[in-house]
Write a structure and sequence with these properties.
The protein is α/β, with parallel strands linked by helices. Helix content is 49%, strand content 19%. The protein has 9 helices and 7 strands; from the N terminus they run E-H-H-H-H-H-E-H-E-E-H-E-H-E-H-E. The chain has a 7-stranded mixed sheet with strand order 4-3-2-1-5-6-7. Helix 9 links the parallel strand 6 and strand 7. Helix 1 packs antiparallel against helix 2. The radius of gyration is 17 Å and the shape is globular. It starts with a strand and ends with a strand.
Amino acid sequence: MSLAIFDLDNTLLSIDSDHAWGEFLLEQGAVDPIAYREANERFMADYNAGTLDMAAFLEMALKPLADNTPEQLAAWHQQFMASKIEPNILPKAEELLARHRTKGDTLLIITATNRFITAPIAERLGVDHLIAVNPEVNQGRYTGRVSGIPSYREGKVTRLSQWLEQQDISLDGAWFYSDSHNDLPLLEKVDHPVAVDPDDTLRKVAEERQWRIMSLRD
C-alpha cells in the first residue's frame, strides 16, 4: 500500500476547474464581463507559461467568494458541478483512481485551485484527502485572502510535507500523476512520477528522465 497523489486540473479533469469557475461566474453576471475575462485568460496563459504571479491571481480569484454570501456560493457551486465539472470528469481517470483504491493505496488530490472549488470535486471522485489553496474564512464568510501557503509549485511540496507529518505517512513508493511542468518540484520527490497528457515542457522532461507518460483522454 502506497500513497497515490493526483493533480486535478487537466489530469483527472479534462479542464482547469479554476478557469472554468471564472467562466461560470461570467455566465452568471457575477463579475465584470470585460475586466474579469481578460484577467482570467491572462492568468491562465501565465500559468501555462510557468510565470503565474500566484498572489495577484488569488487576489482576483478569491474576491468573488468574499463578495457573495455562503448561500449564493453554494447554489452556484451546485450548478457549476452539473454544468462544468460532471461532463469533464474523465472515465479513465475514475478507472485509475479505482485501481489504486483496490490496491489499498491512500488517495490524495493536491491542487493549486482553491478548496471552495475543489472539495466537492474531490468528494465526487471519492477521494478523501485533499490539499488545496485554503481561502481564509472569518465569522462564516470568505475574506478574499489566503490562509497559509498556497499549494502551487514548491508550495505543493511544502504543504504535502506538512500533511505527511500530520498523517504519519511516508512518501516511500508514492505515485504522483500530473499534466503540468509547474508540478516538477513534486514529481521529482516521488518514486513513481507519471506525466498525464503532459504539456510540452513536462513531456520533454519525462522523456529525458524516462518517466512514465500516459493519457487519460484516449
